[in-house]
């Protein structure tokens, strides 16, 4: 457990060099009422890695993704992305809650795909993907559309650019959501149980797309899933969660084949 | 029943004035609805309190008393003069805008939180989220209650006849005073208001169908009930009677 | 700009008279609206077609046209048919009739809001038609209906100043009368504030009631 947040000197932000530390949680605590979901959690993810979080539901996996996406704020501790505080700012040598501008600057490195897709029903597929690159990144319409069409081809939906989200199947919607997140060129992609809301026969298509991305890009992935085979396939590292703590971590081979912890064994027996 | 002279000099201009006042005060109320309604969802407490106070005060205000106050008291207090029609539009816009703000606030609150979260994940600014995600999705939900409010506003325009604006109700009263024959003119007035309300409803339903198509929803059924079902819409949001406030 | 409190003092006796008339109109208007609305609702729900249709058409018409013109109609046209009423009585009838078309919708929604399963359960238990209504349906409908009816009383309060147009000396009638005879302007402000002072706490009260009843 390092306590480097006490130093008042400016941190030197690490550029996204492969293998350097991209995400760091430092003593992060999150409570919902009297229920402590994350308890003084420390962990880090290095750039380019594919990390999967597993564990029983309610163990705090999704909370980690939502904290990183700033959909909720930690009750204690700090989160750093690329060596810079995510929800805090250093002002006059003191750590204070960050303003909207600072958060947006750091947040642009992060993308997320949701369990329920969360496509914008008022926009066609193409505009779902181009809207943020145009209005947030300042891309021209032509650039954004070119990028969007490439991504749609990649997820196998090149012909559905002009459909509304409600006209697509769940699997198709989720593939559009993946394209939408990638269009922002994030350094890290958060995947929150992206296949849980899908009919069983649609799961494979989405996982294939993700495998493809994991193999062909150097994007960092942080993934919450119940698809253990998928986790084994793409992960460099698996973190086993229980009651807001990481009780075990290691390579997928180690975790799935020879888990050390009883709870891990119980959990894997239940889901495999 | 109606002399050509009365018809030309009072009745037709009165009808035209009713149309004008309805349109102008509706536009004014519409702007107030959106400004106050959006402010009531603000992140800043003080903004929510002030805009909430606007809603509470004018929702508790009687439109007619307020209209009298603007038309008679304010000019005497401040030694200014403005046209009676202006007082009427001001009073209607301010009070109906307060009701409308509840429609806007309610519809914004009904947009799923997941949509806001998707907007955060794509790093939109709060303003971009409002304009590109939340308002476009809330808009179709606003139209049915806005239709109901518009009918109430149309009815409310008749109040301007009491501050000496020569709208069609005013013309009706004039006719009674002059000829003493009141049955035909008041019947005609009632029918005219009903026809106007019917036309407004048709227009609003058209807008609603368009808006729903634009967010990829199927349009509402347009069966027998829609044709004869009159001029009220079923909606979850009823600003006239809803308790409003913090939910 | 010179506000004169002595004018307010002079107006207050008239104000209290006006308040009494306003509340009287509101009380009897509400009673008519509540009971007549129930008649419309039942006629539309379980009456034969030849009753339900005209009732729907008439209530729709009344609801879509201004109370003010209806007041004039009742006050100037109806007496020529041989039915004369005082201004206040006319006002009460107009207010009650107008808002009965709103309360009927409230009743319909309240009854319609009771889940179908409740009717089926009552049938399965062989409850009589009367017991079904009094023991199962109405108690559940009331919870939804009462707060909304209460809100319509507030709406009627705010619309009641229109009665001054046919010579009723309600709060606004008194205020306008006083202003015009004394050439002062404080009275309308007093009346305006009075409406807020009555309506706002009333709506707070109803919100509390709604929270208790609707769960």
Automatic annotation (TrEMBL), chain A:
Residues 23-268 form the ABC transporter domain. It is found in: Cell membrane. Signal peptide: none annotated. The keyword Transferase does not apply. One of its GO terms (molecular function) is ATP binding. Its main location: membrane. InterPro entries: AAA+_ATPase, ABC_ATPase_HisP-typ, ABC_transporter-like_ATP-bd, ABC_transporter-like_CS, Ectoine_EhuA, MetN_ABC_transporter-like, P-loop_NTPase. It comes from the Bacteria. The keyword Ribosomal protein does not apply. Belongs to the ABC transporter superfamily. This is Ectoine/hydroxyectoine ABC transporter ATP-binding protein EhuA.
From TrEMBL, chain B:
It is found in: Cell membrane. Keywords: Amino-acid transport, Cell membrane, Membrane, Transmembrane, Transmembrane helix, Transport. CDD domains: TM_PBP2 (cd06261). Residues 15-204 form the ABC transmembrane type-1 domain. It is a multi-pass membrane protein. InterPro entries: AA_ABC_transptr_permease_3TM (IPR010065), ArtM/GltK/GlnP/TcyL/YhdX-like (IPR043429), Ectoine_EhuC (IPR014342), MetI-like (IPR000515), MetI-like_sf (IPR035906). The chain crosses the membrane at residues 15-39, 51-72, 78-99, 149-171, 183-204. It holds the Pfam family BPD_transp_1. It comes from the Bacteria. Belongs to the binding-protein-dependent transport system permease family. This is Ectoine/hydroxyectoine ABC transporter permease subunit EhuC. It comes from Streptomyces beihaiensis. The gene is ehuC.
From TrEMBL, chain C:
SUPFAM superfamilies: MetI-like. CDD domains: TM_PBP2 (cd06261). It comes from the Bacteria. Gene3D superfamilies: MetI-like. InterPro entries: AA_ABC_transptr_permease_3TM (IPR010065), ArtM/GltK/GlnP/TcyL/YhdX-like (IPR043429), Ectoine_EhuD (IPR014341), MetI-like (IPR000515), MetI-like_sf (IPR035906). It is a multi-pass membrane protein. The chain crosses the membrane at residues 20-43, 187-209. Residues 19-206 form the ABC transmembrane type-1 domain. PANTHER family: L-CYSTINE TRANSPORT SYSTEM PERMEASE PROTEIN TCYL (PTHR30614:SF0), MEMBRANE COMPONENT OF AMINO ACID ABC TRANSPORTER (PTHR30614). Belongs to the binding-protein-dependent transport system permease family. This is Ectoine/hydroxyectoine ABC transporter permease subunit EhuD. It comes from Streptomyces beihaiensis. The lineage of its organism: Bacteria, Bacillati, Actinomycetota, Actinomycetes, Kitasatosporales.
